[in-house]
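User: I'm preparing a small set of examples for a lab meeting where we compare how different chains pack in three dimensions. I only have the primary sequence for this one, and I'd like the structure in token form so I can line it up with the others. Please keep the answer compact; I'll paste it straight into my notes.
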Amino acid sequence: MKRRHVFIPVMILVSIAILLLTLPVSANRPFQYGDLIAIMNDGRVMHFAPSGERLDVMNVGFTMIGPADCDFDPAGNLYVATGSGGQVMRFGGPGYPHASLGPWGSYNAVPQSILFDNAFGAYIGLASGTQDIVYRRDVPPVDRSFDVGLENGGANWVNFGPAGQSNIIAYTSNGIAIRRYDVGSDTQALDFGSLAAGDIAQDFDYGSAIPPYNIAVIVTRGRDVVALDNTGSLGGSIADALNADGWFSVDADPSQTLLPYPFFWAADTSTDAIYRFREGNPGFETRVRPDPEFGQLIGMCIYDDDDPSALPQATPTPLPSQTPLPTETPTPLPTETPVGPINQAPVIIAADQDRTLIIPPPGLILLATLATDDGLPNGTLTYTWSQVSGPAPANFGTIMAGSNTTYTVTYPMDGVYVI
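Assistant: Understood. Below is the structure token output for the 419-residue chain.
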């Protein structure tokens, strides 16, 4: 669940439409920005395009009793927290088909929700067993548990904290509060806000907080979907549909990257459907109903602005300084006859911004760089990272995820690093 770049797809918006879920011949493609994932209790995991067109069906290999959740790692692989299935299952995402990569980790509990950071680590909410939030990463290996404060359940649904608070993890616990935990200091933080007495806050995600609607946090509470403002105050119902009384999961994209306005998807068990809503409009725009032959809908997620691996599909506008000056383009001498195109220098499109991170040690983060090149002279573009300054030498390395190589940097101690 849960970076802002310019992305310009072409979509036709069909108001209040039930989409035909046929599998097209063109379905053989990787996961892309805006794609929708639906988890069914018979073990099927369904892949839909942003329009609701069904593209692919995967299978975890066993039945589940919901709820369940999913998220993408920085390489674009899909991870499914299977809830009562007791496992986190992986599916390859950068290529096609999306083959099962098997289970990830071992949990003597119910892993109900999952949330990836940009260092290939994931926070996993355990609804039973220890009822902790666990953090695990393969390279370098990290396996930690956070004994979070609970209400009437475990750490059911997890999400990041507000923007600018990278050390905060938010979660719900089958009660009324949006709870928070400081994973940097390993201490309980203040609750963000709460629903009314008798409500049960289930899944939640962050809205745009743009006036006049001021939707900062979107919360499913069974009978409908409600919002909290920036102060944590409860507003009214912001989404509902006919015969929908089992709202349990939500995933929002407030970035206006895919569509020219903030929107969110919400899943309902009563109708076994996933609905797309525009912020400020309680009536749904699009409804996706997975095939009933696959059983009951128990989870969903979207490939959105929260997922680092979705960003390479964006097409940011280069900064003015990235456009070569006229004097940088060589002019042939009168006696020269140019043969073929002239090799131009690569142009950096985007790179990681300055950041402050507090993550479980040893402090590895992902380095992401996008660039364009004319393919000359040999069609291969390579790049490297180096340290300019810092209190100690940083260690640069790579992580292999399938056929992809991701560059990383590990900081040995706290401080300000320029790389």
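A couple of notes for your slides: Residues 114 and 124 are 4 Å apart (CA to CA). The two ends are 29 Å apart (CA to CA).

User: Perfect, thanks.
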